[in-house]
């Protein structure tokens, strides 16, 4: 399984839902980068993704996007192959 990285904050409900979905899919080692604890990570996230909102999720080197993007991938049957 590829590494999964999620830019997040401590109080983001969409981040919590994304983490629950990823856990349900068998992701055990989710690397969470809390941008509210380390503001320099917010700049890195924005440069990397071009987006300002959390969550921002990477599966391996693939930028999935946010929670809505993750759910759309799952509904389209494309999330499991990315995680394989």
Keywords:
84 residues; alpha+beta; Glutaredoxin; 4-stranded mixed beta sheet; 4 helices; 44% helix; globular
Question: What would you say this structure looks like, in words?
Answer:
This protein has 84 residues and is an alpha+beta fold. The protein has one domain: Glutaredoxin (3-Layer(aba) Sandwich), CATH 3.40.30. Helices cover 44% and strands 21% of the residues. It has 4 helices and 4 strands. The protein has a 4-stranded mixed beta sheet with strand order 2-1-3-4, with helices on both faces. A hairpin with a 2-residue loop joins β3 and β4. It is globular.
Number of domains: 1
How many helices? 4
Mean pLDDT: 97
How large a portion of the residues is in β-strands, by DSSP E? 15-25%
Largest sheet: 4 strands, mixed
**What structural category do the secondary elements indicate?**
alpha+beta
Instruction: Estimate the global geometry from the Cα principal axes.
Output: globular
Q: Radius of gyration, rounded? A: 12 Å
At the fourth level of CATH, the homologous superfamily is Glutaredoxin
Query: Which H/E pattern describes the elements?
Result: EHEHEEHH
What is the CATH topology? Glutaredoxin
Question: Secondary-structure map with pairings?
Answer:
Elements: E1 4-8, H1 13-24, E2 30-34, H2 39-49, E3 56-59, E4 62-65, H3 67-75, H4 79-83
Parallel strand pairs: 1-2
Antiparallel strand pairs: 1-3, 3-4
What does this entry show, briefly?
The chain has 84 residues and is an alpha+beta fold. The protein has helices spanning 13-24, 39-49, 67-75, 79-83; strands spanning 4-8, 30-34, 56-59, 62-65.
């Amino acid at each position: 399984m590829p590494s999964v990285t999620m830019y997040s904050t401590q109080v983001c409900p969409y981040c919590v839902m994304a983490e629950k979905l990823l856990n349900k899919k068998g992701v055990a080692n989710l690397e969470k980068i809390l941008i509210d604890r380390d503001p320099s990570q917010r700049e890195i996230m924005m440069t990397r993704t071009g987006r300002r909102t959390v969550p921002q999720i990477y599966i391996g080197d693939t930028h999935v996007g946010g929670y809505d993007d993750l759910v759309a991938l799952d509904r389209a049957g494309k999330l499991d192959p990315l995680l394989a």
